[in-house]
Amino acid sequence: MAENQRQAVKGARELLTVSSKLDAVVDGHVLAAGTVLRLECGKSAIELTAAGKINLVGTGFNIFVEGDGLITTSGGALTLNTEGGIPATSAPGDRHRALILQAV
User: What confidence score (pLDDT) does residue 41 get?
Assistant: First the structure.
């Protein structure tokens, strides 16, 4: 298809599949949401909020860069390993895949 395409839905839209789904884009790909954008998989989740919060939850994490790395806070503290800390979001858990499969 050589022309632009637009799809608009005024209500909710759901896509369920048993196998896999691939979105491949040659140039840029933007996922946009007005209030919350959330990625979920089992015991992990990433959540972006319109207020500017980035919430990550999981059983572990790995950040790797080949060059220099940088974490910057502007006017605030960077607190690590706080005792009694609780996650700002939750993950769907072990049954996530089974629940999706059941819904299809």
Answer: 95
